[in-house]
Amino acid sequence: MKKLLIICSLLLYLNAKEFKHESTFGFLSNGTLLQNFNEGRIAFSMWIEEVASLYDSKLEVKYFSDKDEIYDEFKNKKSLDMIVIPVTYYFEHKNEIDLIADNFWSVSINDKKYTRYILIGRKNLKAKGFKDLQNRTIIFDDENDIPKIWLDKKSIIYNKKRYMDVVKEEFHEKKEPTILLRVFFGKSDFGIISENTWTTMLELNPAIQNNIEIIEASKKEHFPFIGFFRKDNNNKEKVEIFFKISKNLRNFPRSEQIMNLLKFDSVFEIEKDSLKNLEKFYNEYYELKKSIKDVNTF
Q1: What is the dihedral of CA 268, 271, 277, 282, to 10 degrees?
Q2: Strand order in 169-173's β-sheet?
Q3: CA–CA gap between residue 189 and residue 39 (Å, rounded)
Q4: Are strands 21-28 and 82-85 parallel, antiparallel or unpaired?
């Protein structure tokens, strides 16, 4: 009852206060860090709305489950000042998005801006590389397309086939530690996880290396999602406030709790020049897909 009164009081305070700026942020819950945070969306929304109010700003958070829907709302309805989408979706629509968007950002995990993905496999398979995926099983993150694209690109290069035409069966899980454990207990031959998850799990249980080994590793150039604002003069001050808050995130009430739940350390602005390596990665992938007949999609 006490918690309910506090929430109601906060909402009344937010509604009664005069605000210099009003913004609406759109978050795609699938394919981003929020996919495993469904039960805490109310807490997350209230937290960032509360932080924004400290800067005389009113912030509304809207959640979407469909990539096309959130992008359509941003592009055509123009009701969203900022959205968060998967990196893969950005590169699929890059030319169009770059015309209407600016001030790109993402989050770092364990104080590292960029992520490396690794292909892990059971040691008893004695696998040496991507060619050893033939007629084997593999497990991925349920919502993250980046590992699939990395594997697909490498499979086309080394096997002259897309990965789904090489492996016997693929499985999906929502959490990377579960992916590792399924490989460890022989429920899948291979899996793809982030290097960060591998390091963390080894610290908890070094015996993992007795059964599992790293087969291949991607370049350290990926990040979990991409956020951006509309290229709109009315957004300038809102953007400044957003990045000002981001730089001092841990100084705000309950920030530590929310950041631990979402498992990120900081927010950083993405310079467009830093996207060149990733753009090359995706362009090469799209060209490779064209070279394969009867292309499947995912």
Answers
A1: 80
A2: 169-173, 137-141, 190-194, 117-122, 212-217
A3: 32
A4: parallel
Whole-model pTM: value is: 0.82
Which residue type does 269 have? E
- What pLDDT was estimated at residue 206? 95
Locate the DSSP E strands across the chain: 21-28, 57-64, 82-85, 101-108, 117-122, 137-141, 169-173, 190-194, 212-217, 226-230, 266-269
Q: How far is CA 21 from CA 48, 139, 140, 183, 268, in A?
A: 14, 45, 41, 50, 22
Cβ-based neighbours of 275, under 8 Å, separated by 6 or more = 104
| Three-state SS at 1 | coil
> What pLDDT was estimated at residue 34?
57
Question: Which residue has 């900022």 as its token pair?
Answer: 82
Q: Which two tokens stand for residue 160?
A: 């002259």
Tell me phi and psi for residue 135, to 5 degrees.
Answer: 60, 25
3-state helix, strand and coil shares in percent for the chain, rounded to the nearest 5: 50, 25, 25
Instruction: Please list the rounded mean pLDDT of every run of 10 residues in the chain (298 residues).
Output: 45 52 83 56 79 84 91 93 92 94 87 89 96 97 90 96 96 93 97 95 95 96 91 82 84 76 81 85 93 60
Q: Is the backbone of residue 53 left (phi > 0), alpha (psi -120 to 50) or beta?
A: alpha
**Phi, psi angles (nearest 5°) of residue 171:** -120, 165
